Every structure is written in structure tokens, then in C-alpha cells.
Amino acid sequence: MTLPPWLAEHADARGIGRMIDYTLLRPDAMWIDVARLCDEAVASDLIAVCVNGLWVRRCAERLAGTDVRLAAVVGFPLGAGSTTAKAAEAANAVLDGAIELDMVMPLGLAKAGEWTAVADDVSAVVEAAAGRSLVKVILETALLTPSEIVEACGAATRGGAAFVKTSTGFHAAGGATVQAVAAMRAAVGPTFGVKASGGIRSAEAALTMIAAGANRIGASNLAAFVGIVGPSAPSVADLVAAHAPA
Fold it and tell me: Are strands 69-74 and 134-138 parallel, antiparallel or unpaired?
């Protein structure tokens, strides 16, 4: 099978480990839990860990010398802080060692159709990252109509982001869906980043999201991905072929 453009860099990969952002964002998580997250990510050769700002400096030290990237959330989980506050949070996370930022877009502005303001919010975080960290924009797609998903993707790209992301996993509206991922991929084109996150708790779900258009998966439980992570896993091409839309 010829992989779609968003998966081209994984053509020779075994398993989907280099597409998984291993995530721990519970407010009651302790350092012992976050340290374990980092160690498991390294052991499984995952692409990144994603944590709250409190832990970024310690995680940067823990992950030093490894191939695991460090992502921090910004404006999480509501997206309703001021743009100035988000920019400051982003700058601090980058200073502490984050090389990826998962920001929540201002959902109230999005629902009001104030897309220029949404793009400006994204742009402020991108500028605060100063080219040292790529930015993913969390759209909270379960809260949006299909046309709003398209508009949100446009605001994220105009703001200079590198990825759009489905969900925080904290909103009552729900998490990622195949339909939302496919709509995002159609909106941003074949090579832009699309991250599916929120409620992805099985290998089947992750692979279906990837086949639909995701090139990153947010996950908080590695046990669900046994058999599709690591050097003994099938190739990405074989995994995706088995889950491609009919």
C-alpha cells in the first residue's frame, strides 16, 4: 500500500509509536506519575509526552538525551484565558524545555464566529514560541458544527500553527471522532499536522483515526496499544491498509 502524504515520514516504521503523544494531564498527577510517563515513553520509543506546565522543567531533565519530545499544554483545558496570558504561558513552557505546545483555542470566540480573533490568539502563542516549539491547536471538535471545524482549521493555519487537534478530553461534549478527523484533514490538506485525541482507548480506534487522516494520536494508556507499538509491530503501511476506509 502507498501511504497517504500525511504518513510519508513513517513509511519505513514498525508500529505507530512515533505517532503517539503519551499524555498525563490529570490535575492530581504527582511527579512519580509524570516520571513514569517519561520513562515509559522512552522505553516504547514514542514521539512525545504531553504534560501540564508544572512538570515541564523536570520532564525536560528526565528526557534529556532521548528521542522523546516534550509537549506542554497552554490555556488548558478551557481556552478561555486572555491571549496575553496564553502567550506568557507558552513562552514559559518553551523556556522550561517544551518543544511542542498544545494550546486550546478560545472556544467562545469560535462559537461566536470571531475567526480573526481566534487566528490572532493562535498567532500570539506561535510568536511566543519564537520558532523553538511547534504549536498544535485544540479545536474541541465535538463542540463544533462541521462548518465551524473548517473555519477553526483555517484560523489555526492562518495563525501559524503546525497541527490541529480534536479535543482536550476534558469537555462534556466528547472527544475525537473519525468524522472530525476526516473533516480536519480535508480542511488543512495532505501534509499539515492532524492530531486525534480524547477517548482513544484501543488500538482499533487509533488505527482508524490514522487511516482517516491523523498523523498524531494522543493517548494516556499504553496498554491499549500492545502489538502496534515497538520493533515487533507490523509496518505502518500494513496497519493502515487493514483499517483504511472502504
Answer: unpaired
